[in-house]
Amino acid sequence: MRKTAQANELKGRQVPDAEVRANASARAGWNAIHSDCERAQIRYDDWLDTFEAVIDGCETPVIDLGCGSGNDTLYLIERGKRVIACDYAQNAIRNIKKNFPEIEKAVCFDMTEGLPFEEDLTDLVICDLSLHYFTEHRTFAILDEIKRVLRPGGMLLFRVNSVRDVNHGAGKGREIEHHLYEMEDGGYKRFFDGHDIETFWGDWDQVFLREEVMDRYELEKVLWKGAMRLREKTACVNDENGEGEEMSDIRLIEPTMAYEKEIWQFRQEVMDSDDKDKFAGCGNLEECASAGEWIDTIRLHRNAETCPPDTVPSNIYIAVRESDDRIVGVIDLRHHINHPILGAWGGHMGYYVRPAERNKGYAKEMVRQNLQHCRDLGIRKVMITCDEENLASERVITVNGGIYEKSIEVDGCPVKRFWIEG
Questions:
Q1: Which of 117, 163, 271, 282 has a CA between 20 and 30 Å from the CA of residue 98?
Q2: CB contact burial 169-206 (16+ within 10 A = b; e otherwise)
């Protein structure tokens, strides 16, 4: 079984005595907590409801990493999922095997020593309050191992402590590393702020992230809830739906006259197409007499002070392939949707991939990069829509974390509304 270099290094390096003691203390504590548990006692909260579409669409076994008494395991089994439940407390795994005879597998191991699974095993790993007990080095190694067992485009759903979780130890005890503290029982506990999230998950694609309060415990607990997708960096290979894996060799830039010829060739290709929604996300490119006129119009729309009446501030980006500087698509970003059309069915963004460049995964990557622009503008809840019959567009939205809200009728055509949070 192939292991990452970092995981191999962990197994081979001398572990500091303090870490050994902290790990042993934590394991003893969790074994005491999970000394006995019956299935009827297990309760779960609704945090995974946010990711219902992701879970429903997962056809591989789901790895519940740090399963504890089986709260999330129960949630998944009730929804017909195959589950691999994992914990390093022997009592927890003993209870899982007793309470869930239908479980795919229950495995006892220490995740700091690597995950005992083959690569590309699953599309989904869940870590519910199980990733915040380790030094920085070991946290990165664990995330590296999760990447290894995830299939391309796979997702990690997690909750971790927030630095505002004062009722459960934030800022208390001896600080071992930045935001990592030694608790009274000798175990370690880490607390995260937004910068920490970016540090540990910066090389993942952020699908969802929100700081929130949970009510599982007697005292209020503040935590981060997130969904991160394994970033794909390989060239496109068409999938069974003909849509292609996600591409990462494009960049979104604001159009300039350096692309004048490319812009006009793109416009002509759109004009010649039989598409129903020509020029989606392209602003007024169809009406413009030149690329320069279009670029000038885009500049006016960037600011509320200069955008025309009855419109909202927006940006338009061209998606340029880095290998040959070719425009493969256009996407826009509306700064808000406080507008009768945008708020009903227009949404925060529209996009168009030129016909000759379709089925290569560019739409997914364009939306992914544009969601980062949304976050930069402080837009934390993004609405994207598509015609009910446009299954390819719907897949682009959902693979980027879109959660279906409802369908509405626009000029006799059913339109689906999706929201992406984070």
A1: 117
A2: bbeebeebeebbbbbeebbbbbbbeeebbeebbeebbb
- The long-range contacts involving 366-369, CB below 8 angstroms and separated by at least 24 positions, are 366/250, 366/252, 366/319, 366/329, 366/331, 367/331, 367/396, 367/397, 367/400, 368/205, 368/246, 368/400, 369/250, 369/251, 369/252
For 246-276, what is each residue's pLDDT tens digit?
Answer: 455 898 998 888 899 999 999 999 999 988 7
Q: Give the pairing type, strands 351-353 and 326-334.
A: antiparallel
The count of C-alpha atoms lying within 13 angstroms of the C-alpha of 52, restricted to the half-sphere facing its C-beta, is 8
DSSP class of 162: B
d(CA 45, CA 50): 11
Tokens of 266: 């793109």
Q: Which SS3 state, helix, strand or coil, does residue 339 take?
A: coil
Beta bridge partners of 390: none
Tokens linked to 212? 């929130």
What pLDDT digit, counting tens, does each position of 114-166 carry? 999 999 999 999 999 999 999 888 899 999 999 999 999 899 999 999 999 99
> How many DSSP H helices and E strands does the chain contain?
11, 17
Half-sphere exposure of 382 (CA within 13 A, CB side): 32
